[in-house]
Amino acid sequence: MTPAQIIMVKKTWQKVLPDTETAAVLYYSKLLHLDPEIETLFKGDVEIQGFQLIKVIAITIDQLERPAKAVPILQALGRRYSQYGIKPEHYQTMGYAFMWMLQQILDKDFTPYMKQAWGKTYVMMARIMRDAAHPPAQAA
């Protein structure tokens, strides 16, 4: 990510923070609409999980200039998701739901450039989570 993209992501995240409950509800409702099977994988209150996810995203966004600081948190979330039964292919659906949620909240501020910056952010987060839960095959 470029420094300008990091600034844009941080700035727009500030527009999400005042209503994290809506963000969590939008995200999970879209996720479960896209892939109803995922609902059976999550144990417990989806609303609480939504707040936990938003908290992890907030920490990650806060550390975008130093992403290594967020790695252990994202890895732990990825391992927890794996225990629920989340598979590597689910991360694409989760990405669609995440980007859709941002588009709903940010509305006209979700420009193509902003979408690209957030896409890079999500790909980085998802890769760390997925690789912690499902390590890539080691080269021989």
Number of helices: 7
Radius of gyration: 15 Å
Name of the CATH first level: Mainly Alpha
Shape: globular
Q: How many strands appear in the DSSP assignment?
A: 0
CATH superfamily: Globins
Question: Which residues sit in consecutive blocks of at least 5 with pLDDT less than 50?
Answer: none
- Let me know the average pLDDT: 87
N to C succession of SSEs: HHHHHHH
Enter the CATH topology name.
Globin-like
- State the domain count: 1
The biggest beta sheet is recorded as: none
How does this model look, in words?
With 140 residues, the chain is mostly helical. The chain has one domain: Globin-like, CATH 1.10.490.10. Helices cover 74% and strands 0% of the residues. The protein is built from 7 helices and no strands. The longest helix has 22 residues. The radius of gyration is 15 Å and the shape is globular. The protein starts with a helix and ends in a 7-residue tail after the last helix.
Task: Please provide a brief summary of the model.
The protein has helices at residues 3-16, 20-34, 37-41, 46-62, 71-84, 90-106, 112-133.
List the helices and strands and how they pair.
Elements: H1 3-16, H2 20-34, H3 37-41, H4 46-62, H5 71-84, H6 90-106, H7 112-133
Structural key phrases:
140 residues, mainly alpha, Globin-like, 7 helices
